[in-house]
Every structure is written in structure tokens, then in C-alpha cells.
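Quick one - first record:
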Amino acid sequence: MNNDFGTFTDNETIRFKRVLRGTLKQVWACLTESEHKAKWLAGGDVEPKIGGKVTHHFNHQNLSEEKETLPEKYSDIGKTSTSYGEITKYEPYTLLGYTWDEGDEGTSEVIFELSQHNPDSILLILTHKRIPDNNDFKVGLGAGWHTHLNILRDVLEGKAARGFWKIHMPLENEYEKMIK
């Protein structure tokens, strides 16, 4: 395994670390500005204050030029979906946290921590807490964040992103092995 894989630090938390090319300002824009966020995760607003609203308009087909078929496993979410949350932590350029609506599974929390790694790169630590205690859910979540973070790295390096599902689905097998 390479160091891109998330680590389950306990039964309800996964943590990812990525060194990303760019500045704190560039990476922060990718986390908080809809135009930039839409290129690697999902479009939608991030209201810049604790208690502010977060919106994610997912369309995985738009993350790459590659055209893909939605896997049968994810047909229930459709080609597009929207998720809402609330800002829990907000320190510009260093810390962003928000709730994540998990539907029937409740509410989790995503936290992004940014720090200068070297003059040309940023260390991003993503922690997703209060993950529902469901192995299939954890497999999809681990593979999902892993894929989105790889796309973020590609975006910041000016590379064309590969198709989301083409990356995601094989990663599910790896995360399933980690959980068992």
C-alpha cells in the first residue's frame, strides 16, 4: 500500500494525509470556493463562518473528461446529488470543519487541516469523524475520499483527472481488505 490510503484511527474515524503542490491560498480556495471545489469534489457554497452553511452539489461525471457509466452499486444516488452541512471550525488557510449529512445514517464531521510543508507545497490532513458503523459505508467513504483527494492533487498540478469511478471502484476492494 502507498501512503495515499486513509487510516482508520478508530471505529468511526478515517484520516488522510496529502502533500499538495501549491500555496495555502490555492488549496484553501479548493476547499471553500464553489468554482474550485467543483473541480475535485462538488460545487456549492461554503459560508465563511462558524455556523455557516455548506452545500455540495455532486456530479462525479464532471470531475474528468472521461465519460463513465454510474456503477450499479451507486444507482440510488443518481448521477447528481446534493448534501448540506454546517461549519464547525473556520480558521482561514489553516482549518475548516463541517458536518456532513449521512442521510439515514446520521451526521458525521469532516475536518481539513492545512500547513506549510515546504516552500512549494502544503500538507493537507483530512479527518472524517463519526462515520456510521457500517462496513459497506466505510468502504465507499474511504475509496471516495481517496479518489477525490487524488483528483485534487491532479487539479493543483495541472494534470487531467482520470474518471472518478474508474479509480474509485478498484479502491473499494483495497478499503474492504483494510476493514476486515
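second record:
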Amino acid sequence: MKSGVVAVQGDVSEHVSTLQAAIDRCRPGGHAVTVRSIKDIESVESLIIPGGESTTISKLLVRFGIFDAIVRRAEEGMPVMGTCAGCILMAKKGDEQVGRTHTKLLGLMDMKVDRNFFGRQRESFESHLSIDGISGDFSGIFIRAPAITEVWGDCRSLSRLDDKIVMARQGSMMALAFHPELSGSTVLHEAFLSL
């Protein structure tokens, strides 16, 4: 089993480490790898799009020639998880900031996002979250975080903070407004691998 982390910009190494720890716990012998090419995309069974800067990641996905390959593999059923900036890119609709920056969304999930809903970098925070299907509280770390403002179709809210959706799932895809790779826990990466 090989699971990948898109490695064009953002919080890549932390995701790779956490993903490998999750694989070691639930699928020993598997590997977490970085993904930068179509060949890489074709070689993985699941994919994480990390946090970072959504406009930059979007442009680099196009420049590296992997934007369309990610969409195709996801539509074929490959599990994909987007965190923070990755959450923004997973959405079918964005706010005016997404439009103003000409950020090309992957459009994989039936949801709308507000790009900087929880404020700027200096307004980053940590909050305990209740997540459907996960026992106990999870410590969500929000860094210049988006919010999911609307879901429809098959997309379902899994967690809320102050009545705003911060985690959603649609089939084998998950979107998180926070950074699970910084929490010290592998529980959400394990949940992702179970998809």
C-alpha cells in the first residue's frame, strides 16, 4: 500500500510523518510518499493535499501537470483528503477571495468554502472538536483557516466549530479546515486510510 502527499508547497513533511505513523498502525508494510508528477499520482492508492497557500498550490498543481490527474483519480474513487488549503481546493465553490485570486478549484466535493473565515496567521488557534465517528475530542489546529459554509448533495458535515463546518466527507473524500498533522495524533489519518 502506498499513500501520497502532494509535495508542491505547504505542510508536506508533517503530513508524510503522520501518514507513515498511521500506516504503521493500521497497514504495516505500507509507505507514505511525496507526489509531484503524474507517474506519482498513478502509483498511489490515496492522496493528501496539505495546508499551505491555496492559490500557490493550485497554480503549482497545474504547472506540474497533476491537477487533472488528481481530479480523474478522485472521480475514479481514489480517497483524497484536503487539509486547510487542501480543503479549499476540494470545494466546488469558493468565496470572493477565491475568485479574486483566480484560484482554480479541484471541484471534487459538493461544498462552498470561505477562504480565510477564521482570520489571518496571527489569529491562529487550537480548539477541541467533536468529530462524527471519532471517539473523544480531537485537538484541531487552525492556521489562517477556512470554513465550509455550505454542503449539498452527498457531502456531509462531520464536525462544527461555532456552528461553522470544519470537516466534511463525501464518499471517499474528506475536507478539513484544520491541520490534523500538527495535533500529535494519527486518528484522522487512520480514519482516512480506512476509506
